[in-house]
Amino acid sequence: MKSYLMAFVVGGIICVIAQILMDKTKLTPARILVMFVTLGVILGSFNIYDKIVEIGGAGATVPLPSFGNGLAKAVKKEVDSNGLIGAFTGGIKGAAGGITASIFFGYLAALIFNPKTKN
């Protein structure tokens, strides 16, 4: 039960931060999303985001900072195994699964639900 509560709290805090940024600044949602991914990369590179995941579970692994954390981990792994070229290939390898899944499921949803263009 505690893990559900902590997931709710951590995920809720991330969402509240985004909402405050949208309400109190002139930042667009796209810039806030980029900022969250970048923050995830920074926190992941210092192994701070892993501690947030330990506390918040799915509340920390589902939002966008987790995507940045995954990119940071993939780049670190590639740099350790392939040297400097890993700084360029690690992010691509780390993001490939998520991007492939989003394309596949987006296509599947388009087949099932018959999307229409917006006028």
Automatic annotation (TrEMBL):
Pfam families per UniProt: SpoVAC_SpoVAEB
Superkingdom of origin organism: Bacteria
Residues annotated as transmembrane: 6-22, 29-49, 94-113
UniProt entry keywords in alphabetical sequence: Membrane, Transmembrane, Transmembrane helix
NCBIfam families for this protein: spore_V_AE
Record's protein name: Stage V sporulation protein AE
Source species: Inconstantimicrobium porci
Gene assigned in the entry: spoVAE
